[in-house]
Amino acid sequence: MANMTLSSMVVSRDWQEVSVLECILGGLHMDVAVECEPERAVQRLSHSKIDALIVDCDLNGSAKLFSAMQSPKTRFNTVPLVIMGGPKCMPSLDDTGALFAFEKPISVEQAVRTLSAARCMILDGRLRYHRIGLEVPVHMKQDSFTTDAQLINVSQGGMRLWTDREFEADGLQISCELPGSQSVLKAQAEVVWRDENGNVGVRFVKIPPQHQRALQLWLAQQFLAN
Q1: 215: nearest Cα among 152, 156, 159
Q2: Which residues of the chain are under the pLDDT cut of 50?
Q3: How far apart are CA 224 and CA 164, in angstroms?
């Protein structure tokens, strides 16, 4: 199974600390870009996909970067932010919008723990909305009405199906086998959209905990294998 490589940017001129972070991030399968100027970092963020941002608070101009990160007008205001700095200049997490922080000089143990948590959060966010495309039959039941549909893709929250049958929006019972999974996925669902070509979007309303866990594990395996 392949490891999922994520991207990160370190905004700092403290090359000793940067080298430590590069080693840690590399071990976490995260690519690292280093930027010395906060203004240039903002420009790169505006047109590059960055999964995590690490900013040195000792760097002049970092306050403007934090302000830009929190602006609703920027498309990168949801990038997970980690801050680092000396004990005398560390701003609060609330002031910067950061989710994680560690002091300089960097404790390798603390940095590994912090950056591992950030990576897990990034992957969890991706998995929540990531859809896996596959073609398997889905059994659908609504009161006494039953039919089979074709699964197009699936995520943690629902499915896209194709069927030539009409049915009500609420009260669906659906089940299907996911390739390589040991259990059958069963859920209560509702229709949230449909088009004239037979494509139907359904949202899971209720899934037994064991089925939810099996779906999460299956999606994670497919995601990390790509």
Answers
A1: 156
A2: 1-3
A3: 34
